[in-house]
Amino acid sequence: MTGDTEGGRGGDGGVAGDADGADGAEGADEVALDPWGSSAVGDYRELFSEFGIEEFEGILPRVPDPHYLMRRGVIFGHRDYRPVARAMDEGDPFAVLSGFMPTGDPHIGHKLVFDEIIWHQAQGGDAYALIADLEANSARGMSWDEIDEHARNYLLSLLALGFDPEEGTLYRQSENREVQDLAFELGAEANFSEFQSIYGFDGETDVSHMQSVVTQMADILYPQLEEPKPTVIPVGPDQDPHVRLARDLAARTRYFGVRTAYASFEATDDELASLREAYEAREAYAEDADQPRCEEAAEWLASEETAAEGAIEKLENAGMEPLRPRTRFVDRRATDDAFEALIEAVDGEKRVFEAHVDAFEVNLAEAEELAREVEVAHGGHGFLPPSSIYHRFMTGLTGGKMSSSIPASHISLLDDPEEGYEKVKSATTGGRETADLQRELGGRADECPVYELYAYLLAGDDDEFATEVYEECVGGERLCGDCKEQAARLMEEFLEEHQEKRDEVEGLLEEAEIELESSRR
After folding, report:
1. Where does the record place the region Disordered (predicted)?
2. What does the H/E/C string look like for 290-356?
3. Sheet architecture: strand order including 326-331
4. 3-state secondary structure of 389
5. What is the distance between the alpha carbons of residues 72 and 407, in angstroms, rounded to a whole number?
6. Which pLDDT score is estimated for 16?
7. Which domain holds residue 490?
8. Which residues lie below 8 Å from residue 152, measured CB to CB, with a gap of 6+?
9. What pLDDT was estimated at residue 208?
10. pTM given for the model
């Protein structure tokens, strides 16, 4: 969730990780996502098909007053952001959390994540920002003195950009006992073979590195410890393996699973699809369409080439049992008291089995809410699956990726404003070989690190200005020299203002409820 990336809870912005963007989970060769490696996403569209990330454009109309990073497509994807958008729109509780691995100075790539946290806080969300110091120590070998220095710089920039420490929560992994206890609990639900598959861990991987993963899982779910609520994790796509694992662990800790069923037996997803198909076609084969029998459905399904073989066998074994849709509460890890309380809480017609309860007058949404209420009332967490949004990585000023380890590729938020000016002036561009060609063919703004500076930062909330720069570039009216001069001046002004604001919020940081010096030094 954090990382040495351009932003996110990963190291330099993201959950916490050490990458400039990657994902070590199972997936495509060209889009390998490794939270601690070096990811370059050549085609963001591949993330939609390979990893199930959804295009943010599809949900944008449902987001109240969207941030300019959303409007301009910098935030390009999401995983289950709908509950957050709905809570935001209806004024219900929701949270945002991201973290930072303090391995270097914060730079303009990290500002993406700072802005995303601050914007969600301004929309009414409970905002959490954490320092992933355990990960920095275990995965990167940073000393505690170095961690403290960098952590302070991240926090000052976050406050200078508008994070409200009185309304939000700041913490360090190493000083948060609740997070550590939750990590221990979640660790019981994960295993080494899973970490091998997701992250490529092997026999040489330090145990502390593995422990840092479950700590990040605890970070992601931490905002829901007091009460379940939609929670969004803003990250770069390299951190998606962490989000997917956290969603899995959130489900594994639940007392009850809720799903649709059609008979008393359990069915896989493929079998369930066949059962649904058989039920919907009941008028074609059932003697009594109002009460189709399982053996009738089995005979009909046997003639369907796409039917799941297991579904036919299970229907045959069920014989004359009615095929009838119902909502099933599956006992995953509930206490005896919680299971009895659930049975009591289900209204209307129901059938009780040893490990599940079938309800015939409760829809899925009602069942999910009821299951969560019973779980929380009996000591469970009732976690909602965490959501995530994904932003594009900023291109380095020298081309290629932006990296903390390549000073000329990025602009630190601590750079002298004049140095920031010079870095922009020296940046590569998407311009043509000559001014005449630029006027004739137009510039390649979509491939230009300088245009990214306008779109991601320098144009601020002014969409008209960002559009003007783009259209003048691709239309051949804007030449690279003048464009870089304007961007360099704007960057110089931004750094001056930001660093003045950092000085102003020193007092806020000292008063904030976060340890600025590690007890492990």
Report:
1. 1-34, 500-521
2. CCCEHHHHHHHHCCCCCCCHHHHHHHHHHCCCECCCEEEEEECCCCHHHHHHHHHHCCCCEEECCCE
3. 256-261, 326-331, 356-359, 350-352
4. strand
5. 27
6. 45
7. 407-511
8. 509, 516
9. 86
10. 0.88
Quickly count: other Cβ atoms within 10 Å of residue 21's Cβ: 34
Q: Is residue 243 part of a domain?
A: no
Domain shared by 355 and 465, yes or no: no
Residue 82 lies in a domain: no
Q: Hey, what are 345's tokens?
A: 């809480």
Here the CATH number for the domain that contains residue 484 is 1.10.240.10
Could you tell me if 368 and 312 lie in one domain?
Answer: yes
Query: What's at 48, amino acid-wise?
Result: F
Query: Is residue 91 domain-resident?
Result: no
* Phi, psi (rounded to 5 degrees) for 173: -55, -45
DSSP3 helix / strand / coil % (the chain, rounded to 5): 50, 15, 40
Please list, residue by residue across 365-390, b when 16 or more beta carbons sit within 10 angstroms of its beta carbon and e when fewer do: eebbebbbebbbebebbbbbbbbbbb
Q: How far apart are the C-alpha atoms of 14 and 216, rounded to whole Å?
A: 11
What's the CA angle centered on 396, arms 395 and 398, to 5 degrees?
Answer: 130
Per-10-residue mean pLDDT of the chain, 521 residues long, equals 43 38 34 48 68 92 96 96 98 97 92 97 98 89 93 97 97 96 95 90 87 94 97 93 95 97 96 96 96 97 90 96 98 97 98 97 97 98 97 88 78 97 95 93 94 96 96 96 97 98 96 90 75
What pLDDT, on the 0 to 100 scale, is given for residue 146? 94
Of 504, 497, 507, nearest to 460 by C-alpha is: 497
- SS3 assignment, position 332: coil
Residue with tokens 């464009």: 483
Number of domains in the chain: 2
Tell me the C-alpha distance between 106 and 402, whole Å.
12
Angle at 429 between CA 425 and CA 430, to 5 degrees: 160
| Alpha helices by DSSP H, 125-165 | 133-140, 144-160
Q: What is the pLDDT of residues 73-131, one digit of tens each?
A: 999 999 999 999 999 999 999 999 999 999 889 999 999 999 999 999 999 999 999 99
Strands laid side by side in the 54-55 sheet: 54-55, 75-79, 387-391, 231-235, 95-100, 126-131, 169-172
Same domain, 449 and 502: yes
What is the number of residues in the chain? Answer: 521
3-state secondary structure 351-399: EECCCEEEECCCCHHHHHHHHHHHHHHCCCCCCCCCEEEEECCCECCCC
- Report if residue 369 sits inside a domain: yes
Distance CA 213, CA 210 (A): 5
Q: Is the dihedral of CA 87, 1, 184, 512 positive or negative?
A: negative
